[in-house]
Amino acid sequence: MNPMRFLHCSDVHITADYFSLPLRRLGWRRWLALAELSVGGRSKAYARAPETLATIASDAEQLGVDHFILSGDLTAYALAPEFQLARESLGALAEDPGRCTIIPGNHDVFTPGSHHSHRFERYFGHLLESDLPEHRREGAFPFVRRVGAEAAVVGLLSARVPPVPGIAQGYIGPAQLDGLAAVVKDPRLAGRALLVVVHHAPLTHQGRADRYFHGLKDAQALFRLLPGPRYAVLHGHIHQRYHHPATAERPHIFGAGSSTQAGREGYWLIEVKDGQVLGGQKHVPGSVPVPARAQA
Ligand SMILES: [Fe+2]
Ligand SMILES: [Fe+2]
Fold first, then answer.
1. Long-range contact list for 220-228, CB < 8 A, 24+ apart?
2. pLDDT by residue (tens digit) across 119-144?
3. What backbone phi and psi angles, to 5 degrees, belong to 65?
4. Minimum-distance ligand to the CA of 261?
């Protein structure tokens, strides 16, 4: 049997035209962020993000992947039109929890208002369903999605409203880790690889802990629950694409980087066979290889 394939993308950062919006309605947190958008070049880097996300979704359809995963930071600063456009760009894929897993990133809860009004859930809440809801500990998290006969995807929440812009650390917390421990031990998932999706990076590209105000605080506790190649952690947040293969002590780690950032577009295709995560290949959106049978 061919390996199962999972498309993992992240940090698509659909960005509204902030300079055309009334300043008063944006709030002080987004005013501070405007410098990042203009001087930092961010709005230029994400000008084509909706089109690129639509291309990635279309690649998922053409490749016939078993599941599509987006590990957070759908928006620039959690505005409703950004969520709306992200949803539209994904098309039919975003309708179906059986084919699609999406979790929020720190940019999707950028302001207390966006968090309290459950703006992410308004557009993507239907994708937080769980096949094993008894393992939930914090709202919908962790949620579990069985995929085929050999894998399951688990969604965790690490994105927290920052006290001030610029603080972008995340944590899973003891409650969700307790739920994850129950998921790992659940006999109904025996023989399945577990792909655990979390926004913050447990390790940098260099294999170190990320800096304090940017990293995942409880990365080591996460690793202890997920030793070896049955497991993979799929994350975003650091805008670099990398893979650390599993060891006896920790899971595979896939960082999808920012899949729509101009000049650095891309995603992972991750393979699973016999209940183990084999590895992955990087792909550029729109460069779907022709299937072998069509080449003959
Ligand atoms: Fe990001
Ligand atoms: Fe992030």
1. 221/172, 221/177, 222/172, 222/177, 222/180, 222/196, 222/198, 223/249, 223/250, 223/251, 225/177, 225/180, 225/181, 225/184, 226/184, 226/194, 226/196, 226/250, 226/251, 227/251
2. 999 999 999 999 999 999 999 999 99
3. -65, 155
4. 1
Average pLDDT, the chain: 94
Residue 157 has pLDDT above 70, yes or no: yes
- Region for residue 127 given its phi and psi (left: phi exceeds 0; alpha: psi -120 to 50; beta: otherwise): alpha
Closest listed ligand to the CA of 104: 2
For residue 239, how far is its CA from the centre of ligand 1 (angstroms)? 6
Q: What is the mean pLDDT of residues 67-74?
A: 98
Composition of the chain by helix, strand, coil, percent to 5: 35, 20, 45
Structural contact between residues 70 and 268, judged by C-beta atoms closer than 8 angstroms: no
Tokens coding 42: 């961010």
For ligand 1, the distance from its centroid to the CA atom of residue 53, given in whole angstroms, is: 14
Q: Which pLDDT does position 291 carry in this prediction?
A: 56
Cα distances (angstroms) measured from residue 5 to each of 68, 193, 245, 278, 289: 9, 12, 17, 10, 14
DSSP-assigned beta bridge partners for residue 282? 268
Residue pair 256/267 in contact by the 8 Å Cβ criterion: yes
| Ligand nearest to the backbone CA of 14 | 1
Q: Which bound ligand lies closest to the C-alpha atom of 256?
A: 1
142: cis peptide before it, omega within 30°? yes
Query: Which ligand is closest to the CA of 201, given by its number?
Result: 2
Q: For residue 108, how far is its CA from the centre of ligand 1 (angstroms)?
A: 10
In 3-state terms, what secondary structure has residue 144?
Answer: strand
Alpha carbon of 137 to ligand 2 centroid (Å):
23
